[in-house]
Amino acid sequence: MGPVTPAHAGTYRCRGSYPHSPTEWSALSAPLAIMVTGVHKKPSLLALPGPLVKSGETVILQCSSDIVFGHFFLHSEEIFEEPLHLVGELHGGGSQANYSINSMKSALAETYRCYGSVTHSPYVLSAPSDPLDIVITGESVRTFFSLSLGHRVNDPGLGSPGGHKEDECGILMERDLLGEVCTNRDRETGDTSTDQVS
Known about the structure:
Immunoglobulin-like; four-stranded antiparallel β-sheet
């Protein structure tokens, strides 16, 4: 089927028959929706209150457009098997639709897009919105504070009240890498050594 035009958008079904019984047909297949994109101007997609969401909190994904769309479709390749249908509501001369995700978990940290369509042609869609990346925060913050706390270790071999070693731990972050760097300072000798802890 192609080249595809807006006229191809719609719901399709099929059924079959045996060659020796051409008048006896099977039951209809499940419907298959074909959506044609890129016909209308792309809508906007926002995360409220923002795209950085603490684990367990709620985020609202808002599709909006200055076109009066009767339908919005929220899409994520990993989360939804099919685009999620949202009913468009009039707003400020245009339209919008909200989708609330409760108890945000790391599995829902994904890239989302939305499309819009007018009421009389629900399968003729707009161009996709700009991608929206949802990031779950929380666990990394707790790890940061636990690794940032320094601690002191008594060393009996130094033999004096002032003789002890101090471990100062910090965070080494580069893109997606997280490592712990500890610097051991011997207060009595003044020697400094750095160990990388994997």
